[in-house]
Amino acid sequence: FHHWSNTISNTVNLKALKRDDIHADTAFVGYELSNTVGDKQLKEVCNDFSKAYECIAEDKRKMNEKMGDIFEELSILKKKCKQIDHQRKTVSNLRYDLEEILQSNIYKEDQKENLEKKLGETAEKTLVEMDEFMHLSMINGVI
């Protein structure tokens, strides 16, 4: 037991590996152990162990890349949501301003027409963007 303990201790100096992936580090340890043992079956077990952890490390890297892409897509969708929410608030404020002017009965006709036009254009643009977001964002496709 003492012999194997020393062998593993000498082989498993993780700080010397200078990697960030525990699975790749573990694969490296298995590989190094296979080089230190003489028994053919034990060497094969160490190699199989190393290969298994190499596969895990590679699959983990691939998964992290996919998750990064998904996170980026969701960030874009979140930004678009905030933009649409801002436009909806603008529409609400324009509607309120127009209603306030109409209730005051003291306004210039061109001022009222400008607000009506701006409200109509902004509301239409916001509605189109909301509709596009719902149909084209494919949130379910991202998740």
UniProtKB/TrEMBL annotation:
InterPro entries: AH/BAR_dom_sf. It comes from the Eukaryota. This is Spore wall protein. It comes from Ecytonucleospora hepatopenaei.
